[in-house]
Amino acid sequence: MEYQSSIKILSERDIVTARQHGRNIAKKLGFGTVDQTRITTVISELARNIYLYAGKGEIHFELVSALGKRGLKVRALDQGPGIQDIRVAMEDGYSTSGGLGAGLPGVKRLMNEFDLTTTVGKGTTVEVVKWLREEGG
Amino acid sequence: MNTKIPILKLYNYLLVSIQWELDDQTALQFQESLLQKIHETGASGVVIDLTSIDMIDSFIAKVLGDAIGMAKMMGVKVVLTGIQPAVAITLVELGIHLQDVDTALDLEKGLEILQKGLGD
Asked: What pTM, to 2 d.p., does this model score?
């Protein structure tokens, strides 16, 4: 299966498309049920953030490997308003849209790697990686 | 896809079994339908079974939480049942604990909670 792929986020429906696509990839890669759910949920959160704050963007999927382990990298990109204060965005609790959209700290907890790049007025990129466990769990 | 979630009446209660992936619109529509059905039937309790749900994100959790709060305002108790282990793990890791929400392992235990609570 070709894992490298991307889904455009242009409508609310695309949030579902992106996460279902992500679940399929995660399943084919051999992630266990719980990790599949973590990955699917993260994609849903990131896609919703794109839709809510930027209006449109993309979710990219990529198989990655490092030090003998394999994993799934998900990149959520948009050219929206960017995040004004990263410290506030990384605080636990509800987001600025009144409970809608992700707590990025939650997304960070669900994944093994988390990277956020943002420029006010230009856009935001969130990159996360979930590594496959040796036992395939 | 804009399929409505079926809400069934069982004695004095409403029973909902969410069978497929909830997209945002369906979740919001369900919230409205539930409250409308409570109003129509005069039900005193609701069980929402989530056995078939394989993912709940922060938005869906909020819609469900709000629906429960709205039902409570109408004097109706809601119990969520059948939350899958992977979903429970993910929600807690996301930081969502559903503290004010009554939950039960399955449909039967959910109904028991309603019966005890309402003295039926």
From this structure: 0.91
